[in-house]
Automatic annotation (TrEMBL), chain A:
GO cellular component: periplasmic side of cell outer membrane
Any one GO molecular function term: enzyme regulator activity
GO biological process: peptidoglycan biosynthetic process
InterPro entries: LpoB (IPR014094)
Signal peptide: none
Identification of the protein by name: Penicillin-binding protein activator LpoB
Originating species: Chitinophaga solisilvae
PANTHER family recorded: PENICILLIN-BINDING PROTEIN ACTIVATOR LPOB
From TrEMBL, chain B:
Keywords per UniProt: Membrane, Signal, Transmembrane, Transmembrane helix
Natural source organism: Chitinophaga solisilvae
Protein name in UniProt: Uncharacterized protein
Residues that span the membrane, as ranges: 113-133
Residues annotated as signal peptide: 1-21
Length: 198, 134
């Protein structure tokens, strides 16, 4: 059925396939700023773009200077609230909200207080100190700093697709609200649109 | 009853005391206490979501994903049909893995291998009798 040459070619092809299947996986470290889009879904580049836009925006807007003016130079205290992901993908807002928090701490323009489960853990530790720590080092109750503002947000998306073409639009909104008056003092948003062709 | 009333009163007073201790501010709503009493017991559950992402995602339509899902569904149904066919085929005697046969369960239309054998025996006997008779 096959002559010797054809047999040799088929054997070589099979050998190549076998070797390709056995080849080890290659992993290469890349820069975090490098844009690599594989599937078209939300990725580290999108998170970085949102973080960059929000951090530059939130510290340069009028709410900060207004607060400093009204409170004779006292820094505003911010607490991070809930971020709702109403998009079509699983997105954890912590990847970019943490960058915003970090900018508060590094620039020293805004004071940040702990929230959520971490705050619960702190209170647990304080409760433990009441029984186990020495009186001189024991931390007291009721001396936490009350936040002036709460940072909340939402992530939304719109998907338009037909067969091989797909346009995905993400909108990330972060809002800063005065806890005393419910006044929204800052809204930052970042819009990302992607055209994906399969 | 008296004790429980006293405990309730104490709890209420403990809840109210910090607010009472606050001095009234000009233009403050005089009914602020109602709001405080409403939200004070809910504070823990409301604040538990601070610094978290609430996932309220939706499923977006994608042509290729929908096609792949339809294919997977068809494959699953085909597999189920195959299993059903094996389960009720006459040449297969089911033995339960729990150590007892489910022969005693009420399944009037089930065809088993033994029934199939008895049909064969009856047919062979009938054929033999007919041959002798002829």
């Amino acid at each position: 059925m096959f002559n010797v040459t054809q047999g040799a070619v088929i054997s070589a092809l099979c050998g190549c396939l076998f070797l390709a299947a056995c080849a080890p996986r290659q992993v290469t470290r890349v820069s975090e700023n490098e844009q690599i889009d594989v599937s078209g879904r939300w990725n580290n580049t999108d998170s970085r773009l949102v973080a960059e836009a929000m951090t530059t925006n939130i510290l340069s807007e009028n709410w900060l200077s207004d607060f400093l003016q009204q409170h004779k130079g006292a820094k505003p205290v911010v607490i991070v609230g809930l971020v709702s992901n109403k998009s079509h993908e699983h997105i954890d807002a912590e990847t970019f909200v943490k960058d915003v928090e970090r900018s508060f701490v590094t620039t020293q323009k805004v004071k940040l207080v702990q929230a959520g489960s971490k705050r619960e853990e702190l209170r647990g530790e304080r409760a433990d100190q009441q029984k186990n720590a020495s009186v001189s080092t024991m931390k007291k109750w009721g001396l936490e700093i009350g936040a002036d503002y709460i940072l909340q947000g939402s992530i939304n998306s719109i998907v338009d697709s037909h067969k091989k073409k797909n346009v995905t639009y993400y909108q990330v909104d972060l809002e800063l609200t005065d806890i005393q008056s419910n006044e929204v003092v800052w809204i930052g948003n970042k819009k990302i649109a992607k055209y994906i062709r399969n | 009853m008296r004790n429980s009333c006293f405990i309730t009163f104490l709890l209420l007073m403990t809840a109210i005391m910090p607010v009472v201790a606050q001095e009234r501010v000009p233009d403050q709503n005089p009914r602020y206490m109602e709001s405080y009493l409403h939200y004070a017991p809910l504070a823990d559950s409301l604040n538990a979501f601070h610094a978290t992402t609430l996932q309220q995602t939706y499923k977006a339509y994608n042509y290729f994903e929908a096609k792949a899902e339809r294919k997977a569904q068809r494959r699953e149904w085909r597999q189920q049909r195959r299993l059903q066919n094996i389960r009720y085929s006459p040449s297969w005697q089911y033995t339960s893995p729990w150590g007892y046969d489910d022969y005693y369960y009420y399944r009037p239309y089930r065809r088993t291998a033994s029934m199939f054998t008895s049909y064969l025996t009856a047919t062979a006997l009938a054929f033999g009798i007919y041959s002798l008779w002829r």
